């Protein structure tokens, strides 16, 4: 059984449903993140785990015990907030010792545990300082130490780094990863920052309108978003609405016959009539090397025919979205023909120089807008193209990810 089981939990405020029948499990030792835009319900869910709020329906089970009905201070759960919430009149050591004093631990034991906690967050030597004598990063480390000192089963962190500048945030992210590994306590982390979620988490639940849209490892969330919302919310993504025009290999897809029901079976060498899932007769036309991944062509406004990897349950005429990350797109000057599966001529409409990379917004001849990302360091050049340059954008058939949503 998982350490934390959230079963069919809902929370309504009047007519408004902030958390809508969420179920998820978190394993012991996981760094688990609730990620979503403002108002998606992540803090409400966290508050219910902590006991500061109660669900209207559902169960929250920690280590086999239903927490609903148990007051916050009796739950083996601690929370770290964005604003640190340290006692200003107490020293660092006093702040960290506070929950141990409340638990009536003996003074020598408290002293020992405070030293260990200061070690955990690399603040040895800071015990006698007051919070106002610390930097933001140091204050948050004290808050984490105070939350961890009583060794809760679960540490909840509500946007703990959002008040920090980018550089400090990155440093604190590394510290949190290392700390979680060292202490082995399960972290449930709330953030609206997708890069933070990708960097920190073992698994991420992406929330939208009070529901989980996708629960997965960071790399899968990024590379295989399950919905259009996830593709759009995590990183930057070109999203092309398309209709499946043909199913088969690139060579066999006849441009003059876009809606033909052509199927090329892997390894098939004969010509034969088959039936597709809708019961229609389809024509097997050619031999494919056994390892060639199945493909399809999509009809996309502004681009025309786009070749893509064949998703499950593909059928001619079915609509969906091709999600294509900007870094998967290549740009070249239109001098020689590009041999990639998909290549379109256009011009650079806009660009954004970001130092290490440049974002190019390319308008294709057909009228589509495509965002591409190029690393600048490779050729030691600041930028490869200028606004107005004629270019070709290209990507391989398996660079994108097709969604039915
Ligand atoms: N006590 C409350 N009374 C009424 N509505 C509430 C209450 N608490 C939260 N809400 C609403 O529930 C929704 C979810 O709020 P929640 O704080 O969980 O969002 P969030 O995803 O954490 O957003 P943020 O990142 O902005 O904190 C919001 O629309 C919010 O206005």
Automatic annotation (TrEMBL):
Protein name per Swiss-Prot or TrEMBL: Spermidine/putrescine transport system ATP-binding protein
Annotated TM spans: none
Gene source species: Glaciimonas immobilis
Domain of life (superkingdom): Bacteria
Recorded coiled-coil stretches: none
PROSITE patterns: ABC_TRANSPORTER_1, ABC_TRANSPORTER_2
Lineage of origin: Bacteria, Pseudomonadati, Pseudomonadota, Betaproteobacteria, Burkholderiales
Gene Ontology BP terms: putrescine transport
Limits of the ABC transporter domain: 4-234
Gene Ontology cellular-component terms listed: ATP-binding cassette (ABC) transporter complex
Keywords: ATP-binding, Cell membrane, Membrane, Nucleotide-binding, Transport
Single GO MF annotation: transmembrane transporter activity
């Amino acid at each position: 059984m998982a350490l934390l089981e959230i079963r069919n939990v809902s929370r309504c405020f009047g007519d408004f449903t902030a958390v809508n029948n969420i179920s998820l499990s978190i394993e012991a030792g996981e760094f688990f993140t609730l990620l979503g835009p403002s108002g998606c319900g992540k803090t409400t869910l966290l508050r219910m785990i902590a006991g500061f709020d109660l669900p209207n329906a559902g169960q929250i089970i920690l280590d086999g015990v239903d927490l609903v009905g148990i007051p916050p201070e009796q739950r083996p759960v601690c929370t770290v907030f964005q604003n640190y919430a340290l006692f200003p009149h107490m020293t660092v050591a006093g702040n960290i010792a506070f929950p141990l004093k409340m638990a009536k631990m003996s003074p020598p034991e408290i002293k020992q545990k405070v030293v260990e906690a200061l070690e955990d967050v690399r603040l040895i030597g800071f015990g006698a300082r007051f919070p106002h004598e610390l930097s933001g990063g140091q204050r948050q480390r004290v808050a984490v130490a105070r939350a961890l000192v009583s060794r809760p089963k679960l540490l909840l962190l509500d946007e703990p780094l959002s008040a920090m500048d980018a550089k400090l945030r990155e440093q604190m992210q590394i510290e949190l990863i290392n700390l979680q590994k060292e202490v082995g306590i399960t972290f449930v982390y709330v953030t609206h920052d997708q890069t933070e979620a990708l960097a920190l988490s073992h698994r991420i639940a992406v929330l939208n309108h009070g529901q989980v849209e996708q629960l997965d490892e960071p790399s899968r969330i990024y590379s295989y978003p399950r919905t259009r919302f996830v593709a759009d919310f995590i990183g930057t993504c070109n999203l092309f609405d398309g209709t499946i025009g043909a199913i088969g290999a690139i060579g066999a897809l006849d441009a003059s016959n876009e809606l033909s029901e052509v199927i090329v079976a892997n390894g098939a060498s004969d010509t034969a009539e088959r039936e597709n899932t809708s019961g229609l007769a389809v024509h097997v036309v050619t031999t494919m090397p056994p390892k060639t991944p199945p493909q399809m062509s999509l009809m996309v406004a502004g681009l025309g025919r786009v070749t893509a990897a064949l998703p499950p349950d593909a059928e001619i005429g079915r609509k969906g979205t091709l999600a294509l990350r900007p870094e998967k797109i290549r740009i070249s000057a239109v001098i020689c023909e590009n041999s990639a599966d998909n290549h379109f001529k256009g011009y650079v409409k806009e660009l954004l120089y970001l130092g290490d990379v440049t974002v190019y917004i390319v308008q294709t001849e057909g009228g589509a807008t495509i965002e591409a990302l190029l690393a600048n360091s490779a050729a030691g050049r600041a930028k490869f193209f200028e606004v107005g340059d004629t270019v070709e954008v290209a990507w391989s058939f398996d660079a994108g990810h097709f969604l039915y949503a």
